[in-house]
Amino acid sequence: MKKIIIGLAFFLITAGVGLAVFLYGSFNQVAVHSSVVSTPTPKPKVEGFNALEPFNILLLGYGGGTHQGGKLTDTILLASIQPQQKRVFLISIPRDLWVSLPIKGNEESYWKMNAAYAIGADDIGYPDKNEQFTGKAGGGELAKLVVTKVTGLSVHRFAALDFNGFKKTIDTLGSISVKVDRTFDDFHYPIEGKENETCDKTPEDVAALTATISGDLLDQAFTCRYEVLHFDAGKTTMDGTTALKYVRSRHSAQDGGDFNRGARQRNVMLAVKDKILALNFFPKIIPFTSSLSNDLTMDFTLEDIQEFLKYKDDLSAYKIVNIALTQENVLRITKSENGQSIIVPKEGAGQWSELQSWLKQQMVASPAGQMTTPLTQVTK
């Protein structure tokens, strides 16, 4: 059993959990399927994993719960398994990337990337979507479509884990040791359940402040809604709650924004991999099975899992390569027509060819441990 977990370690959090659920007979509680049924001229079948062809998995993390925006994805990572190179490329995609989504039939409009899963998962608010993007798998199907459009890589499967499941996963592992790249403070990390606190202000005060200021200035007026985070550079032991704060933090002057957050998310993923390799995971599988059936959604098939098990020994030798899409290479930060802060390709919104060419160049095998670019790193 330990060899099985080691062999699939690069699945990191979500797919590793999926394997555990499968092994204990709860696979159907988390596995979903596209709403599109077979027709006389079906679309080509997406092949499962094998030891010869690339296999791309979209990993999504979202808030969950009942509050507004609970299905917006804070974490968007594409894991590209390349058997010929013996590599897994872990590609970070910014949540504020400006992308076109088919919201009404084939009619497209622009949204931030993090809305794709939420819109696909909401059949009531968006009733005119194509059938492919409806039902339990609708969020994953729409997210897969747009990630393929951005990267040029076909996305074969997705796995989506909410924040509650993320915390449970880390705690089940018994904490992780994360490499914090730089010391930082975040003075405006939101406290769950206090989003609408008035902070002892009258209704008139709240109305006046909301009408006259916004953004960071408005945050500063309601300090009781936020807590202060501090992380020191270096190896830091984190439980589930601390790790979630580390990967979600956005408002630090030293380490803020989507690009730095993407780097922190990859640091946590690598820490999870290291912990899985370091411990006897067998006694931890039962807690996974009993606690995550409401927090994890994925479209892996039983055949996928069986194929991974067949190649578990080969997979354990793969290297993980981190690739970040940032303003240092192919992206730039700008404003949308309605004033939102968004991220677009350097050649313009919806122009993905240069990004795809750059990404293809990065996905070339390099000697283990060598930095191929400042933002592309190979990790054992």
How would you characterize the overall build of this protein?
It is a single chain. This protein is of the alpha+beta class and 380 residues long. It folds into two domains: 2-37 and 45-181 and 239-379, Aminopeptidase (3-Layer(aba) Sandwich), CATH 3.40.630; 184-231, no CATH class. It has helices at residues 2-7, 14-23, 27-30, 115-120, 138-151, 163-173, 203-212, 215-221, 240-248, 257-278, 285-291, 302-310, 312-315, 353-362; strands at residues 55-62, 73-82, 87-92, 98-104, 107-112, 157-162, 176-180, 184-190, 226-231, 234-238, 296-298, 319-324, 331-335, 341-345, 371-373, 376-379. Helix 6 (163-173) crosses helix 9 (240-248) and helix 9 (240-248) runs antiparallel to helix 10 (257-278).
Characteristic key phrases:
globular, eight-stranded mixed β-sheet, 14 helices, Aminopeptidase, alpha+beta, 380 residues
Strand order of the largest sheet: 11-6-1-2-3-12-16-15
- Amount of beta strand: 15-25%
Which sequence of SSEs, written as H and E, runs from N to C? HHHEEEEEHHEHEEHHEEHHHEHHEEEHEE
Secondary structure: number of strands: 16
What is the level 1 CATH name of the largest domain?
A: Alpha Beta
Helix tally equals 14
CATH homologous group name of the largest domain: LCP protein
Structural class of the secondary structure composition? alpha+beta
Q: Judging by the overall fold, what is the CATH architecture of the largest domain?
A: 3-Layer(aba) Sandwich
* Mean pLDDT, all residues: 80
CATH topology of the largest domain: Aminopeptidase
Q: For the CA atoms, what is the radius of gyration?
A: 21 Å
Shape: globular
Major pleated sheet: 8 strands, mixed
How much helicity do the residues have? 25-40%
Tally of individual domains? 2
Distance between the termini: 21 Å
- What are the segments in which pLDDT stays under 50 over at least 5 consecutive residues? 1-25, 38-46, 367-375
